[in-house]
Amino acid sequence: xxxxxxxxxxxxxxxxxxxxxxxxxxxxxxxxxxxxxxxxxxxxxxxxxxxxxxxxxxxxxxxxxxxxxxxxxxxxxxxxxxxxxxxxxxxxxxxxxxxxxxxxxxxxxxxxxxxxxxxxxxx
Length: 123
Hints:
Elements: H1 3-13, E1 26-30, E2 35-42, E3 45-53, E4 65-74, E5 77-84, E6 89-98, E7 101-108, E8 113-122
Antiparallel strand pairs: 1-2, 1-8, 2-3, 3-4, 4-5, 5-6, 6-7, 7-8
């Protein structure tokens, strides 16, 4: 096996370098100021639930949730899938955590169409 194939496995097995799901738990504000979410475990997965919506286009509501099945993929990154039950859509998702900042990148159509969103931790 090539060394480059082992790197993601070694990172995932090393808790010092790989971001853990509990590091993303808490309250977060989206950079556009429209949404706030609470990220917490929900069963064996992680859920992001809208706790506040300001303005917006009406497609988001308080209580909407995103169910994520993610695992450490690299240093400071979780990767996996997300399901939006309100819209009945599944996404590939990458989550990067740095200090009190969070970046999410959701993709559809085999990662052809992606959208990145920045978040700040609410204390």
